[in-house]
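User: Fold this; tokens only.

Assistant: Input:
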Amino acid sequence: MDELVRYIGVSKGSIYYHFKSKEELFIQLLARQNREWINAWMEKSSVFSSFEEKVYGIADHMVDDFQNPLVKVGEEFYISQPENQDLLNQILQIMQGPRMLYRDIFAEAAKEGLLPEEDLDEIAVIFSSMLDGLSTSYYERSSDELRVLYRRSVGYFLYGILDANKSK
């Protein structure tokens, strides 16, 4: 609680007054972090001029966020609370927020004729699952190694492993 008080800048009493439970507080913190992550992407996304640059950029943005302690705590909390369906649904909705961001990037590519418009939801799920799955490597690799891994995965996603091997 002391770390939380420092993080959000209010007293413990205020926290206990405004939130019915630790779970509710956690949900609100996770939602706040997710909004901040999306807003930070929106600010930096304008520097990327092409679809390909944006896809690599969003992967880098994800790696940059691994330093945020709520990222891993959110995943662990989600996994450890299977009996509370309402809580699970709230966390799942928050954690799916980035998927909509990815879909928006893919929708821009579809407008340029690079992707089939009817496949955007599926492509966003696959891309999101790939990035989320790679996050387990957080425990095994340094930030620099993760960045390389994420960027290589984007290359495989965009060009396929067979094409990537032909160019070596």
